[in-house]
Write a structure and sequence with these properties.
about 60% helix, disordered C terminus
Length: about 725
């Protein structure tokens, strides 16, 4: 079955709120848009996620959480939502259109958390999606309503101070002091403390941390006059706002100078970040490098930072609650240090992108993909700063933003983020900048992304411009890449002699300048495809085998999948269906792991052909249906190429004849309901020998090499 969603697990106990959770479940059952509103720190996200978990079984396609906290640009809302939904979209369609088409026939609940900074674009997006996706329901979480017709509201109040607030404080206090309990001796002080903090969960949790050093009575004493002090004496400020600011401000007051400064500087991060990033971005100017670890530990102890264990035994990562981050950002702005710290942040993630690009061609390729996914929120912030500057001031050096956008090519192409990549690359090309190596790289990467999306006109224009400018500037590297991608464009445009000529020229240039990486090896795979389409399957096999061997020597997996695809199809043509299946399954497994939809859907098409040859026409049709659905997210089906389409057409003709029109259509529909995860699972877990009882020709003689009907055209 398809993955049921992405809700995180609860890290601490859930206290109270039974009636609110029940009410929210009822609202979600009866309304398509429900918004949980309330002050910062009141527990909106916890209540929404608890209710979402309890209704998860009602939604065929699961419950999905999209966190918008930390986003600055309205143009990122659609991309962030697509990322949260794990929407594989390689097309040139606007992300909004891709989202609507993806959700059109799905039944799922979308939890949209932290839309406050971007309320208007979020409201527009939600309204549009609800109109176009009848099976979609949205549970939004923010400090105010979205303001959409039909929206149902659940205003969340603080915890009752005489019961649940005391329970929450006691539970969090016992996490700090295992022997803590509410007793006859301290019960009055605990009750007064909870009342003074207005039952606000975040304020109670921050106050509980103080018990490491103070008694409940001492904590209470130190709250005296804090409301007035920390709200500027404004008697009209709502009590719960005063309580939150008091709790956060009190934690701030109790920090040492280095901890306060670190808190302010940490506000430039988004999502999770690691200690190395903190040390680089935040050290200096009042924080010695050897003080950073101790200051981070102190902020974790005070619940200013939350700590998450690293995946697979990796380094711990940290995160700051939005309300706490806002408080720190205010201090950073007051210090006049925002631009400098954001520049340091940009530089760290610029270095990370550079390291990841180099390590993409290594045994650490999977680790790179995971790292980029984990750091994507901060990479987006770095791109925004590089391209837009800060506080109304333009970017200092457009080439830096162009370098970052181009260096992340492996993220856009290799990790299934073509649509977002084109967004950033397009913005980078719009910058008024002189010709440079960074601009040339953005151009060929943009052309690569555009051609994979099926936008041949845009790809051709920018790649030709890149080639001409690189030639005039003597930039041999950019010229080689431009020629390579022009050859790739010819490949998907069915001009095989031109594709062979351009790619062969690019490979010679790569060798002359000593370039060897995933792109270079991909050029050789594409050359293998072009010669196979022209009938020289033996040469295609030799080229693909060489790529396979180099990939395995270097630990490269992404390009390896495409080489295996070519070898798998050649094996099918040569009458080796079992070997063909092994190769195609390995290719699909790799593509699926990297979220590379282009490679995955090609492998699925090949597996459908192999499955038909094994005597299982129904299963072959199901896989064709799944591939057909996924092609909608790639762009033109089979690139609009008669060569790439030929094996699909052969498989379809045979399956139609075996099943009949009605059964074939039903099987296609069955496959069309599968997403990438479910389709890959089904294709990779087919029992060996399944369908052989009804086999009608497992090994077929190759059909004629006319492209419109030729199986080997899929090479």
């Amino acid at each position: 079955m398809e993955t049921a969603g992405n809700l995180p697990s609860e890290l601490t106990g859930f206290v109270g709120r039974a009636s609110e959770v029940d009410r929210l479940r009822a609202l979600v059952a009866g309304s398509r848009l429900v918004t949980v509103t309330g002050a910062g720190g009141v527990g909106k996200s916890r209540v929404a996620l608890r209710a979402a978990r309890l209704v998860q079984d009602r939604f065929r396609d699961g419950v999905w959480l999209a966190e918008l906290i930390g986003l600055r640009g309205a143009d990122l809302v659609d991309h962030t939502l697509a990322e949260a939904l794990r929407l594989p979209d390689h097309t040139s369609r606007a992300p909004r259109k891709a989202l609507a088409e993806h959700l059109a026939d799905r039944e799922l609940l979308l939890v949209l958390d932290g839309f406050d900074r971007l309320a208007e674009p979020c409201a527009e997006l939600v309204a549009d999606l609800l109109r176009r996706a009848p099976g979609l329901r949205v549970l939004a979480v923010g400090r105010r309503p979205l303001g959409i017709t039909g929206e149902q509201l659940l205003p969340l109040q603080p915890l009752p101070v005489g019961s649940d607030a005391v329970r929450l404080f006691a539970e969090r206090a016992s996490a700090v002091l295992p022997d803590f309990a509410v007793t006859a001796h301290n019960s009055a002080a605990v009750a007064e403390l909870c009342a003074r903090l207005d039952g606000l969960p975040l304020a109670l949790e921050l106050a509980a941390v103080r018990l490491r050093a103070l008694s409940v009575e001492q904590v209470l004493e130190r709250l005296d006059d804090r409301f007035r002090l920390l709200t500027g004496g404004d008697p009209s400020a709502p009590a719960r706002h005063r309580a939150l600011r008091t709790a956060i401000g009190w934690s701030h007051e109790l920090c040492g100078p280095a901890e306060r400064l670190l808190w302010a500087r940490l506000s430039v991060f988004a999502g999770y970040f690691d200690l190395e990033a903190v040390e680089y971005v935040c050290a200096g100017g009042g924080i010695a490098e050897d003080e950073v670890v101790e200051a981070v530990a102190a902020l974790v102890d005070q619940s200013v930072l939350s700590r998450q264990e690293g995946a697979g035994g990796g380094p711990a990562r940290y995160r700051m609650l939005d309300s706490v981050r806002e408080y720190g950002a205010g201090w950073l702005a007051a210090l006049g240090d925002e631009a400098r710290v954001r520049r340091r942040h940009r530089d760290w993630y610029l270095g990370l992108a550079t390291w990841c690009e180099l390590d993409w061609f290594s045994p650490r390729q999977a680790e790179v993909a995971e790292r980029v996914a984990a750091d994507l929120p901060n990479l987006r912030l770095a791109l925004e700063f590089s391209l837009d500057g800060v506080a109304g001031e333009p970017s200092e050096d457009p080439a830096v933003g162009q370098y970052l956008a181009g260096t992340l090519w492996f993220c856009w192409v290799g990790c299934g983020r073509l649509a977002e990549g084109r967004h950033w690359l397009g913005r980078a090309l719009e910058l008024p900048a002189e010709r440079s190596e960074a601009r040339a790289k953005v151009m060929w990467v943009y052309g690569y992304v555009a051609l994979l999306q099926g936008d041949s006109a845009a790809a051709l224009a920018v790649l030709q411009e890149c080639r001409d400018e690189a030639r005039a500037a003597g930039n041999a590297v950019a010229e080689a890449y431009a020629l390579h991608r022009l050859g790739c464009l010819a490949l998907v445009s069915d001009d095989m002699p031109r594709a062979e000529r351009f790619i062969d020229d690019a490979l010679l240039r790569y060798r002359s300048i000593g370039e060897l990486n995933s792109n270079v090896l991909m050029a050789q795979v594409e050359l293998a495809m072009s010669v196979a389409f022209q009938g020289d399957v033996e040469q295609a096999v030799r080229l693909a085998e060489e790529v396979r061997d180099i990939c395995r020597d270097h630990g490269e997996r992404w390009t390896l999948a495409y080489a295996l695809y070519v070898l798998g199809y050649a094996a099918w043509l040569g009458g080796e269906p079992e070997r063909a299946r092994r190769l195609a399954e390995e290719a699909l497994a790799i593509d699926h792991a990297f979220d590379d939809l282009v490679g995955a859907v090609l492998a699925l098409e090949l597996l459908a052909l192999i499955t038909e040859g094994e005597g299982a026409p129904h299963e072959a049709a199901v896989l064709q249906g799944a591939a057909g659905r996924l092609w909608e997210s790639v762009g033109l089906r089979l690139f609009g190429s008669r060569y790439f389409n030929a094996p699909h057409a052969v498989c379809e003709q045979r399956v139609r004849a075996a099943l009949g029109e009605a059964a074939y259509a039903a099987a296609l529909g069955e496959g069309g309901r599968l997403g990438l995860d479910a389709a890959a699972h089904r294709a990779l877990n087919r029992p060996r020998g399944a369908g052989r009882g009804e086999q009608h020709g497992a090994v077929r003689a190759p059909v004629p090499r006319e492209p419109a009907a030729s199986p080997e055209a899929a090479g």
